[in-house]
Write a structure and sequence with these properties.
With 171 residues, the protein is α+β, with helices and mostly antiparallel strands. The protein has 6 helices and 6 strands, in the order H-H-H-E-H-E-H-E-E-E-E-H. This is DUF4440 domain-containing protein.
């Protein structure tokens, strides 16, 4: 039995149309609300793991232990630290989730505010402002919806050191 090319084409096109219709059904406000709620839960779980100093739980929230984590010194902080060191220093510090988690459990939990969550249901961002003894700044997580739920794909954070605040009259 021979299959006609136009019949195969019609089946493929029909399948694609059905997929697009079903995909449109998935992108409803209720789904977005569920995703935002799930991302809020991810953020809360991470903050609780930090407070418990539970490195394994924190690392499990990343898509990979090698997920990139990049910190960047704010301009004034960079100037203050560079002047104190009297030599060139890097302005950004690349790391991995595994290394960042090890460092993060050694510090007291940050104070956080201005949590913002954006998602299209597949990818998203979670951003917030933090304040700690060692400084303050903003954190940005890029997140991805995996087969195992929402995971942190990468993290960026800015660093403003207290000495820079003092030179700017912030303290």
């Amino acid at each position: 039995m021979r299959v006609r090319p136009c019949k195969v084409f019609a089946v493929i096109v029909g399948g694609l149309i059905a997929f697009q219709v079903n995909a449109a059904d998935v992108a409803t406000p209720a789904t977005n609300d569920r995703d935002v709620s799930a991302l809020h839960h991810l953020w809360n779980s991470y903050q609780q793991a930090v407070a418990r100093k539970d490195a394994k739980a924190m690392l499990d929230m990343y898509a990979s232990p090698d997920a990139p984590v990049l910190s960047a010194l704010a301009s004034q902080s960079y100037a203050v630290i560079k002047a104190a060191n009297k030599q060139p220093i890097p302005r950004t510090f690349p790391s991995t989730a595994k290394d960042d988690v090890v460092g993060e459990i050694k510090l007291p939990p940050d104070q956080t505010k201005n949590l913002r969550i954006e998602t299209d249901g597949e990818i998203g961002t979670i951003t917030w402002d933090y304040s700690a003894k060692v400084g303050h700044g903003q954190v940005v997580w890029s997140v991805v919806h995996t087969n195992d739920g929402w995971k942190i794909a990468s993290a960026l954070f800015s660093m403003n050191v207290p000495a820079a605040d003092a030179t700017n009259g912030v303290n």
